[in-house]
Structures are given as C-alpha cells and as structure tokens.
Amino acid sequence: EHEAEQPQFSNVPQSKQGSVPLEAAMSQPLPMEELFSAPAAQYQLPILGEVPSGEPPDPKKCSPREYLEFYIFPVLLPGLAALLHEAEKEKCFEGKRTKFIPSDFLTEWLYNKNPKRKDESFTELFSIPFVKDWLKDHPRPPIPLSLLISEEEASILIQSFWRGYRVRCDSEIQELRQWQKKLREERHINEVVKKFWTKQEAK
C-alpha cells in the first residue's frame, strides 16, 4: 500500500522533499507570497512629483527611506520623466549615435529645479559654477560635426562636395587651377595680401 502511494509535491523547496522530477517542479507555481513576506505597497515608488503627507522630518535625523521619500523622489522622479521626454524629442530611441547627453540634461534640470533656487533665473549647464570648475580640469573633446547637423544638412554638404569634385576633375578646370597656382607662386600673392592687410590694420 505504501509503495502504491505517490508523493504529493507542493510548494516546498526541493531540498526538503528529496529528489523531484524536473517536469513536476516546473509545473508547480512558485510561492510568491512566502518569498516576499512584506506587503507589495512597501516596494511601490511614490506618485510622480508627489510629496508625502505630514510634516517633513529632520533631514539630519530621519531614516534613509524618509529622506528619499521627502527630499529626493519629489524632485528626482519628475527629472527622470523630463529626461525621457527630451530623449524622445532628440530621437535617442531611433539610432545608436546622438548628440544628446542624458547626464548633462539631468544635471541642468535638477540644478534649476532645486527648491532652494526657486526664485532664481534659469542657468545653463556650462554656466553652473561646479560644472565650470570641473570642465577647467577635465575639458571635453569637441562634438563631431556628424552629430551636430541634421540629415538634410549632411546630405547638402555631401552633394556639394561631390559636385565640386566632379567639376575639378574637368580638364579645363584642371588647366585653370594650374595657371592660378603658377600665378600665385610667381607674384607671391600670399605675401602681397599679407602686406596689404598689415597696412590696413596700421591705419
């Protein structure tokens, strides 16, 4: 009789039941309520930009959670939402390369939305004091031109260069360019122009 009985697998871990077939273990639901004993509301973030009700606690004596809920989340979460909207406007989700720098936007946004600066005028990123001090010791490389211009502007530049290249390949244009080069060398046109502007500046 005992041999005929089949073990009934429940949500008890395998270590307490002995060897459990893989198919049987996968078919059983996980005991989520037991894994997460704390209520679900404890892990929910506050509503965007909402400050918890009640008197704000002393920032130097309150718990880390109270500090986050009263002083960090009400400013940070709207900043992250604005960051996502700006990233979508800059088409960051459509391509791998973009001139948009999320950390720059968020730094500027948080600095200007600081409650302590609510009566002050808007300050651009590179005019923020600590940003200026940082960039003095850590200068940034220039942004590539390919990220600063639109696709339409880039196509115009490429087409203009190609048309100029095709014109310069013409035999008559090549002859004209050689004549101009020889003329510049013989008459020292560069020195003449330099002396002319020197005289103009002296006046």
Automatic annotation (TrEMBL):
Bias type Polar residues, positions: 7-18
InterPro entries attached to this UniProt entry: IQ_motif_EF-hand-BS (IPR000048), IQCK (IPR043408)
CDD domains hit by this protein: DD_IQCK
Pfam family of the protein (one): IQ
Disordered: annotated segments: 1-24
Superkingdom per UniProt: Eukaryota
Protein name as it appears in the record: IQCK protein
Record organism: Sitta europaea (Eurasian nuthatch)
Lineage of source species: Eukaryota, Metazoa, Chordata, Craniata, Vertebrata
